[in-house]
Amino acid sequence: MGITKSIYGVNKDGAEVTKYTLKNKNGIEVSFIDSGAVITNIIVPDRDGVFEDIALGYNSIAQYEASVTYFGAPIGRYANRISGAKFVLNGKEYKLDQNDSTNCLHSGNLQYSCCMYNTEYNEDEDKIIFSRHSPDGEQGFPGNFDYSITYTLDNDNRLIIEYKAICDKDTIVNFTNHSYFNLGKGGHKCPDVLGQEVQIEADYYTPVNDILVPTGELKELAGTALDFREFKKLKDGIGKADAYGNIVTGYDYNFALRGDGKEGVKRAAQLRDSSTGRIMEMYTDLPGMQLFTANDMDIDNCKDGVHYGNFCGACFESQNFPNAINTEGFPDAVLKAGEQFKSTTIFCFKTF
Ligand code: FUC
């Protein structure tokens, strides 16, 4: 139990970046850097007690700062896509960066995962709090926005992520964590996740147009390539058809999680690897989850010098539905001035 810290490097502004590691009594370790409040390492055992790092990452701060892959990254103020990179709130139009065709993706060019954070922790505790002030107009969003991301690693092998925020104007919020997992032999060094099995607590997904903006409909997963109601190998859906008969070449879809959103934190998805016996369960209080499988990735010299290729990891991004602010019928994305925003996502690590 406890926290250790070390120097990770120096960021583009010359500030020292610190790496913090939480370790629980079962030997599981999760590390973070105060540049971006990014999760850099998640070291967990396989069924034979072999500890490996199952989180994709980079080798240096410079790589994290230049990245558009969001390895281990917390994303805010608004994760995923906003159509036309604009929205109207209280009769006023707000313009964002167009960094994904005509959309704003993951809030545009200024990434929360590249900013420096204040850090609070006690050496003998199992949690660390990263906080930051996002000024009015940052990324194009209204209001002075004070937010924190608390990471707790408990002895039940749960990495608990709590997002809290408060704003002095009405604004929109959608936090996620964009960690990529690979539970195979070698962890993040394992070439791909195609043979790993996924299960998702969803019966519907939100189909998208050709630039990945939801059409506003919900479509049944049953009988499609996206049906993960029972455990299924990721590769078993690839090459098969979605609800419209389009062939799925990789996963980048928002699943509408079961429930009415008022149940609190509940299990959303699982990833497991039968060769190592590792399981990762994701729990959240949010209504949606983006399954993204590092489609078309091709990056050299990542963490430990590893090359990451197509399907090298899978992301389980808890979230509101993409473009909810511009889509009638999608869950509310507005945070009222002065109201406290709170949301929890948990990654739990087990073996079988
Ligand atoms: C996910 C996807 C996007 C994008 C990003 C890096 O959130 O929805 O398409 O590629 O990750």
Write the layout of secondary structure elements.
Layout: E1 3-10, E2 16-23, E3 29-33, E4 38-45, E5 51-53, H1 61-66, E6 74-75, E7 81-82, E8 86-89, E9 92-95, E10 104-105, E11 118-121, E12 127-134, E13 145-153, E14 158-167, E15 171-172, E16 176-177, E17 180-181, E18 197-200, E19 202-205, E20 219-220, E21 232-233, E22 252-257, E23 266-273, E24 278-284, E25 288-292, E26 314-319, E27 334-335, E28 341-351
Antiparallel strand pairs: 1-2, 2-3, 3-4, 4-5, 6-16, 7-10, 8-9, 11-12, 12-13, 13-14, 14-28, 15-27, 17-26, 18-21, 18-23, 19-20, 19-22, 22-25, 23-24, 24-28, 25-26
This protein binds alpha-L-fucopyranose.
Describe this entry's structure for a reader.
The protein is an all-beta fold. It is built from 1 helix and 28 strands. Strands 11-12-13-14-28-24-23-18-21 form a 9-stranded antiparallel β-sheet, with no helix packed on it. A 6-stranded antiparallel β-sheet has the order 17-26-25-22-19-20, with no helix packed on it. The protein has a 5-stranded antiparallel β-sheet with strand order 1-2-3-4-5, with no helix packed on it. The site of alpha-L-fucopyranose (FUC) has 8 residues, from strand 25. Residues 69-70, 80, 212, 252, 290, 292, 317 line the site of alpha-L-fucopyranose.
